[in-house]
Specification:
The protein contains 17 helices and 15 strands. The chain has helices at residues 35-45, 74-82, 114-122, 139-150, 153-200, 206-218, 220-235, 241-254, 262-289, 294-314, 319-385, 425-428, 431-445, 465-479, 491-494, 521-533, 539-550; strands at residues 2-10, 13-19, 24-29, 62-69, 90-97, 103-107, 110-112, 125-128, 392-403, 406-415, 423-424, 453-457, 484-487, 499-508, 511-518. α7 (220-235) packs antiparallel against α9 (262-289), α11 (319-385) packs across α13 (431-445) and α13 (431-445) crosses α14.
């Protein structure tokens, strides 16, 4: 709800502030007094384009502020949170325009860009001006209106959840198919690499072990000669080292009783003798086991070359890395095979989700097709009341493949002159006709739609008398559930106001400027009487104005008949 509007230095407005009622606010005044300027200022703070021509005085900036109460608006709170803006019970929208034409926008004193301001404002205000592009011309709004009239909010909510689940599963299936197709193109190559590595049957440390074995075979003769000579020197020469060490050990042991330090030394020498003797035997055994094997050397060289070629091919350095690569390739092949099997499960889930969504969509379709003619008839009756006796609305539900709106597209077609030719609203309806059509429709479904503040700029264009009275009745009914602001020249509409504001011009040192004041009961009578009988209304006209304000019995609220 729009609580307050503050305007400074805008067009012929020096400064003004106005507080609005939560129901029907009527704005009247002489032609040229500045009513549309006031709406223009409101449009500026709601996101309209601006330039320096809006400034009254180039020495200071234009400032327009609009204070809204925004409690219990979850969709609005969600939008604010997306931009890290605090959701609170009051929102202050501010727009500033400098003499250079540069403008800035704020929400609760936080700077925002113009698109963000427009998005927030669209959740707060629904403005209907002459020749303004209306939501009513959009297919999504037409469908929302019909759904509101059908009063199947629970089914609609379930369908949206089902359709979201369907689209999510469809996206998953398409992504899985794309991944499988991509991986399948590489599957043969992966399999070739895996087969190549499996055929090699590479061990974890095989390269290192083969290289060590090849080094030994390459130096077999030299190694055997050295080991043979060592063994000879240790135990087979004329004076073998083992025997010499044995002699020394015997001599040292014979002195064991002579000096107390000699037995430990003899024990150490005994250990050295035993170690040297064992070493001689092991070296002899190793020497006997070493033999040159050219065939084995060729086998090893060939396998090392094969392994090194694969390592170079895959950019690895060790046997362990090559085996890790083999395991990774095998996992990729297995994953592709598993993904192929998983597609069947995803396809099954998709079909279940589709069946659920289609079942709910058919329930929506049944209600829409059943209620569309009734909505058209009831709108036609209201159009007749508001001065459009020859106008008729037709609602077409055309079957289409399942989409986020269901199984049909909803189109509102309009015939303003009983021509028998029904055309889309944007082609055949004038601004005033669209405004009255929108008023009629919203009067029927206002209780079921989350609508913001509604602003009508001269919705009464081209009507008077009973038609204007009926427009006033519809506005009054609509305002019982939503805040409505209306600029009007019709006393029949103005008489229905919960709050009546008069816009006028006043001379000042800076020239003429627009002012606005809230009217009390006497002021309302005078204003409506002047609308009926001119600047100096007679007593009879004043009496008629009072009777018009008093009105007759309030008609029943409009809405979905049950």
């Amino acid at each position: 709800m729009l609580s307050k509007l503050f305007v400074r230095n805008y067009a012929i407005i020096e400064a003004l502030e106005v507080s609005f009622s939560g129901h029907l606010n009527i704005i009247t005044g002489e032609t040229g007094a500045g009513k549309s300027i006031l709406v223009g200022a409101l449009g500026l703070v709601l996101g309209d384009r601006a330039d320096s021509t809006v400034l009254r005085d180039d020495a200071s900036k234009t400032v327009v502020e609009a204070l809204f109460t925004a409690a219990d608006r979850p969709a609005l709170a969600e939008l604010l949170s997306q931009w890290d803006l605090e959701a609170c019970d009051e929102l202050l929208l501010r727009r500033e325009v400098a003499a250079t034409g540069k403008s800035r926008a704020f929400i609760n004193d936080t700077p925002v860009n113009l698109s963000q301001l427009q998005a927030i404002a669209s959740r707060l205000v629904d403005m209907h001006q002459q020749f303004h592009t209306l939501d009513l011309a959009r297919d999504t709004f037409q469908r929302a209106v019909l759904d509101a009239f059908c009063a199947h909010a629970d089914v609609l909510k379930s369908f949206r959840a089902a359709y979201q689940a369907y689209t999510l599963r469809k996206a998953r299936l398409e992504a899985a198919r794309a991944a499988l197709e991509r991986d399948s193109r590489e599957m043969d190559y992966y399999r070739f690499l895996c087969d190549e590595l499996r055929e090699l049957s590479w061990g974890a440390q095989e390269l290192e072990e083969l290289e060590a074995e090849l080094r030994l075979l390459s130096h077999a003769d030299q190694t055997r000669q050295v080991l043979t000579r060592i063994c000879f020197d240790l135990s087979e020469s004329d004076h073998p080292l083992v025997h010499q060490l044995k002699t020394v050990l015997n001599q040292l042991q014979s002195l064991g009783n002579v000096h107390p330090a000699l037995p430990p030394l003899a024990e150490r020498l005994s250990s050295a003798f035993l170690e040297l003797r064992d070493l001689s035997g092991e070296l002899r055994q190793m020497s006997d086991g070493i033999a040159s094997d050219p065939r084995r050397m060729d086998e090893i060289a060939s396998r090392i070359a094969h392994g090194q070629r694969l390592m170079k091919k895959h950019g690895v350095r060790t046997s362990a890395e090559l085996l890790e690569l083999q395991a990774s390739l095998e996992q990729r092949v297995a994953a592709v095979v598993e993904a192929g099997a998983g597609l069947e499960a995803l396809q099954s889930e998709l079909q279940q989700a589709l069946a659920w969504a289609e079942d709910l969509a058919r329930q929506l379709s049944e209600a829409r097709n059943r209620e569309a003619p009734l909505l058209a008839v009831r709108v036609g009756a209201l159009l007749h009341r508001v001065g459009m006796p020859n106008a008729a609305l037709r609602i077409e539900c055309s079957e289409v493949p399942l989409y986020e709106g269901g199984l049909e597209e909803v189109r509102f077609l309009f015939d303003a002159n009983r021509s028998g030719r029904f055309e889309p609203l944007s082609k055949v309806a004038s601004g005033g006709e669209l405004s009255r059509l929108m008023l009629s429709i919203k009067s029927l479904v206002a209780g079921s739609l989350d609508m913001p503040t509604l602003i009508y700029d001269e919705i009464d264009a081209g009507i008077s008398g009973e038609a204007a009275r009926q427009v006033g009745i519809l506005m009054k009914d609509l305002a019982s559930r939503h805040q409505v602001l209306s600029i009007t020249h019709q006393p029949q509409i103005a008489s229905r106001a919960d709050a009546h504001f008069h816009v006028y011009k006043e001379a000042s040192r800076g020239g003429l400027q627009t002012r606005i004041r809230a009217l009390d009961e006497a002021g309302r009578v005078d204003a409506i009487a002047q609308m009926m009988g001119g600047e100096n209304p007679s007593a009879v006209v004043l009496k008629n104005a009072r009777e018009l304000i008093a009105g007759g019995p309030t008609p029943p609220r409009l809405g979905r008949r049950r």
